[in-house]
Hints:
Helix 1 (about 10-20) runs antiparallel to helix 6 (about 125-135). The model has no long low-confidence stretch (mean pLDDT about 90). The chain has helices spanning about 10-20, 45, 50-60, 100-110, 120, 125-135, 240-250, 265-280, 285-300, and strands at about 40, 70-75, 75, 85-90, 90-100, 110-115, 140-145, 155-160, 160-170, 170-175, 190, 200-205, 210-215, 220-225, 230-235. An 8-stranded antiparallel β-sheet has the order 1-13-9-15-7-6-2-3. The protein has a 5-stranded antiparallel β-sheet with strand order 11-8-14-10-12, with no helix packed on it. A two-stranded antiparallel ribbon has the order 4-5. By secondary structure, the chain is of the alpha+beta class. It has 2 domains: about 1-235, Jelly Rolls (Sandwich); about 240-300, no CATH class. Pfam families: JmjC_2.
Amino acid sequence: MTPLTTTPRTPAAVARAARLLSRDPDQVRDLPWGTAHAVFDASPELAAVMTREDLDDWLDCSLLHYPVLNAIRGATPVPPQELTRTMTVSGDPRGGYVDGAKVRARLRDGATVVVQNLHEWHRPAREVCRRAAELFEAKAGAVAFWSPPGEAGLRVHRDDGHLFVVQISGTKRWYLYDTPAAPGLWEPGYVEAPDGLAEPATVDLRAGQVLYLPDGIAHHTETLDEESVHVTVAVREPALRDVAELAVRACLARVPAHATAAAADREEAVAAVLDDLAAALGRVDRAALARHVTRRSVQTGGSR
Length: 304
């Protein structure tokens, strides 16, 4: 049986998004979508998705709340009390607000600061992700990472979704291993036996560049001799499980919720309902289902 795959077979989406992604659209016209990494120059819009100065503003002059801003040291999340403060508003104390001094102290200790869901509250990221969602006909979201010099990053892991890593400042070294051939051969998360992987390719990503990472590629990172800030724009295509669930739910609407499989003829009832389900699935308007899944992906905020 051929393994199921969600990797598109046509570069049409990449061609549509070329001007959003790169200063020189020709650099991405042959992007190895789903098969290998690539590096190219960011478009002005993508390069301006956020700035280093934005981070200082968010720490000192915003109402950011944990866990929109959080931090991780090695593989361990930094406790919220080490990042936040209590703010009193009209005599009412409220906890969880980001404390700039505490966050900078955690950076000095070697933690990486993570700023989540940029696409929901930061206008440049919101616009980039809105356009990416339309062009790729998929969900799109953005997360920022702020790492101190010499930080080793997470251990080898795999992310779901196609990632566009935009280097904002500093240089980040990426160690890139295999790209899985099919979804059934990998799971998102840490790679428990990285010693079994081939030797990694290395990419030193500099400010103004974009690194494309295909869905599931194993990787880890290292910050060099200056701090690094990058934004990851994740493009996540509709999951086949979600498509199947939508189709089955549409068919189940024909089965009354109070209908039962009586003990006397349960086996026959089960066989009958499965036969009816198979027949109903065969009658599903596939083109309409594909349009519905596309529309839902584009209109739903975020990358999940």
